Amino acid sequence: MYVLSSQCAGQSVMLYDYAGCIHFHSDHSFDGFIPVSDIIRAARKNALDFIMLTDHSSLGAKPMEGWYGNTLLIVGQEISPRFNHYIAFGTSRPVFVEEDAGLLPQSYIDEVKRQGGIGFISHPDHRGAPMFHVKHYPWLDWSVSGFTGMGIWDFMTDWQSSLTGRMKALMSFFFQCSC
Ligand SMILES: [Zn+2]
Hints:
Elements: E1 2-6, E2 13-17, E3 20-22, H1 36-45, E4 50-56, E5 66-68, E6 71-79, E7 86-89, H2 105-114, E8 118-121, E9 149-150, H3 155-161, H4 166-175
Parallel strand pairs: 3-4, 4-6, 8-9
Antiparallel strand pairs: 1-2, 5-6, 6-7, 7-8
The structure holds zinc ion.
């Protein structure tokens, strides 16, 4: 993540490069099993500047938000109906949308804003891994407005998309996921 700082046009410009991880789940999430303390330990071991946790519709780790040495933990959430997943930070309450509620994503983009938060369209090109029964979770509604940004690369999405054969999956397990 680059942060640009300039005093005014034509003046000195400073660039800061921060290494971190955005969008992952802990054991506060229905699909996570790693305690936040273990995640923080791993982040510090790898000298990350920041980590931005996004458990599914949960702010259970919010009390742990803060600095751990030189690593900053920011606790957000992922709003995740069947499609149109949205990660949000700075909200005061979890936003839960039933998987098949049929609610337009504009409604939860607006709710995040109403709570004073910011939000990002999540893994918009997610294709899943049909061979391994991993569902696809793309963003489908491009009529929306008011979001802060969008994820343009997602490790899990790319890795799952690469699982096009059993041998590829096996090789990936031994030579990529072990790092
Ligand atoms: Zn998601």
